[in-house]
Amino acid sequence: MTSAETALADRKLVEDAAAGDHAAFDTLVRRHTPMMYRVALRITASPPEAEDVVQEAWLSAWRSLPSFRQESRVSTWLYRVVTNGALAQLRRRPPTVPLHEAAGQVTGTTPEHRVVDAEQVDAVLRAIARLEVSQRVPLVLRELEGLSYEEVADILEVGVPALRSRLRRARVALLGQLRERP
């Protein structure tokens, strides 16, 4: 299914779910939960908190279905809901803790290369988790989730120039943290 077809299918699912079709909502949940969990995990840096954020985000989405005007893509709306939930979770707790889950994308061909690759990925994820929230969130959405500048700006409700500025500061801070690494 192409991106445009998925967007149309999502719009139909939202309309049906808003009309009370629980199966349509279940389909949305199955389709978008992995993305929402990735975002929540990368923002909160805690698997249990990320699971809570996703559950709360789906509850919020369910309650908001009748008022969703479909001015943006459903996925963009869900990114916004989960991002706002993750940020609210961060405000309710002390500063971030190290990320417990390293990405499973290891590219080395020998066991030694895979260990080094995994350590590098872990170091980058830990450095991202230490960034200020205002830097971490746009970096996660743009670089790790692959959203366009326009989509991230829409989710964060800022202009593209402001987003580019935040991303530049985030990249500089991330590089600084990685250089400090022993």
From TrEMBL:
InterPro entries: RNA_pol_sigma-70-like, RNA_pol_sigma-70_dom, RNA_pol_sigma70_r2, RNA_pol_sigma70_r4_t2, RNA_pol_sigma_r2, RNA_pol_sigma_r3/r4-like, WH-like_DNA-bd_sf
SUPFAM superfamilies registered for this protein in UniProt: Sigma2 domain of RNA polymerase sigma factors, Sigma3 and sigma4 domains of RNA polymerase sigma factors
GO molecular function: DNA binding; sigma factor activity
Keyword set, alphabetical order: DNA-binding, Sigma factor, Transcription, Transcription regulation
Gene Ontology biological process: DNA-templated transcription initiation
Domain RNA polymerase sigma-70 region: 28-93
Positions of the RNA polymerase sigma factor 70 region 4 type domain: 123-174
NCBIfam families according to UniProt: sigma70-ECF
Similarity comment: Belongs to the sigma-70 factor family. ECF subfamily.
Protein name: RNA polymerase sigma-70 factor (ECF subfamily)
Organism: Amycolatopsis jiangsuensis
